[in-house]
């Protein structure tokens, strides 16, 4: 048994093909992320991975959709989305497969 803390990882990503990781794999990436109200991420897509985002707590806007605790959003490869925390928000994100360097900003398309 290994015990670690979420803070030991970069931006909450703890499973994947990156370092540091709790379980090294390119099959999937898993992260738990904490956002303060007002935090934003630019619109981007993944060309390879499907991303599944669960709003664990708080409220956020992704591509015009207001999401709250319990909502799940599946984003297909090539589909762009942005992110804005409307209140302090915790998300769990799963990316399948775990594809490093698979993030493309919408302004770069």
Structural class: mainly beta
Strand content: over 45%
> What proportion of the residues is helical, as a percent range?
under 10%
Estimated radius of gyration = 14 Å
* Poorly predicted ranges: none
The 3D shape can be described as globular
SS summary, helix count? 0
Alpha-carbon distance between the termini?
Answer: 44 Å
Please provide the count of β strands.
11
Strand order of the largest sheet: 2-1-3-10-5-8
| Main beta sheet strand tally, sense and closure | 6 strands, mixed
Order of helices and strands: EEEEEEEEEEE
Average per-residue pLDDT, rounded, comes to 96
Structure keywords:
mainly beta, 109 residues, 5-stranded antiparallel beta sheet, 6-stranded mixed beta sheet, 11 strands
Overview of this structure, please?
It is built from no helices and eleven strands. The protein is mainly beta and 109 residues long. The mean pLDDT is 96.
